[in-house]
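re: that chain from earlier
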Amino acid sequence: MTQQWSNVIPNLNEEAREAALLHQNQLTKPPGSLGVLEQLSLQLAAITGEVVPQLDKKAVIVMAGDHGVCEEGVSAFPAEVTPQMVLNFIHGGAAVNVLAREAGAQVVCVDVGVNAELNHPNLVTRKVRYGTSNMAKGAAMSREEALAAIQAGVDTVEELVRQGVRLFATGEMGIGNTTASAAILCAFTGMAPEDAVGRGTGIGDEQWQHKCDVVRQALACNQPQAEDALDVLAKVGGLEIAGLVGVILGAARHRAPVVIDGFISSAAALTAVRIAPEVHGYLIGSHLSDERGHRALLEELRLQAPLHLNMRLGEGTGAVILFQLIDAACRIMREMATFAQAGVSGQEDVK
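^ sequence. v structure.
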């Protein structure tokens, strides 16, 4: 599978990056003085092959799926919240909807594994199965199901690209998915559950320790192989996490930047990078989540998180906020005057 994806993901365009840097250095500012905005504009040029890309049409893809591990009592919320929140997304009432409207982005909600019958014209239905199995007692899903969920993400991106979307963000909904994400982090890095497991929806100390024990049990029961990313994903992952892996792979295939949200999205990103290392350059970090293991995931991914907002909601909320920084970076490159245009002396004019 790694070879399959390595063959279809294009190399970054280093000539466009260099041309963007040359243009950037002619703008009326000291070099590097806009910090992250300058870094973003260079990465966007390398991804798209355009010095000043037009990324006005953007979407956050919210993958939704249920987790059998909820049987173990790892969440403060019941599993029934997943389908309820999906309806909230498609009616425009969730936090990610509000923030997406502010950023001028569309929210695309995809049912890849919700344990309920959901039908709505605004819902993208690509259901692989009705939730995962309890990973504390066996594999969350089969390899074939994990592949099908990845394909659901790829297909969603393909459809949106045909509609003109050029910038993507990862979002998710699935009660129990911080447990799966912590297990993925532990499986890939060997980290102890106590260092990877966070509070999720807001559990107390006793339930947190139980959640750590459940992750430990899932790892012992399934023995996921770190060198086989699909094995890790199938055994201790989630359908919506697999769907996000597909979103990332699909976006990279189309030279589209993909902004990574918080802990769950970063677990998907790490899985995608382990499947196809070439996708790394297409990833843009957004925020540092309050989830315990997120910093470790970002370090493993070698991604910066420009925003530190003490958020831990998921849904794609942090990623959508970063859309506005991307807009600002593109606008600077497009509209800011050069030294020559403004009649301002540059560094080369100083004797």
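The CA atoms of residues 218 and 289 lie 24 Å apart.
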